[in-house]
Amino acid sequence: MRGTDAGSTLDAAGALAFDAQGQIDGQITIASTGVAERIGPLLEEPWRTLVLGAPAPDGSYANQINFRSGGIYSGLIPIAALPPLY
Prior knowledge:
The chain has 86 residues and is mainly β. The chain contains two helices and six strands; from the N terminus they run βββααβββ. The longest helix is centred in the middle third of the chain and has 6 residues, at 47-52.
């Protein structure tokens, strides 16, 4: 998925699937520029960093969101749990 406007970009790529227990398994890599500044009032810290990642020296952000065994992880940090979806 790719979204752009005059000053912002957001790229998300990855693959998600269901495992044998009906839980989501996979990962999504997120890269953005200008998005963290736009959503700042809507998504406060530490959630903004857990979703978008930490800023690089050039102002871009990158992060990987992992889904496994009913958990959602920002890199290796658990941030949420999901029940089986079927």
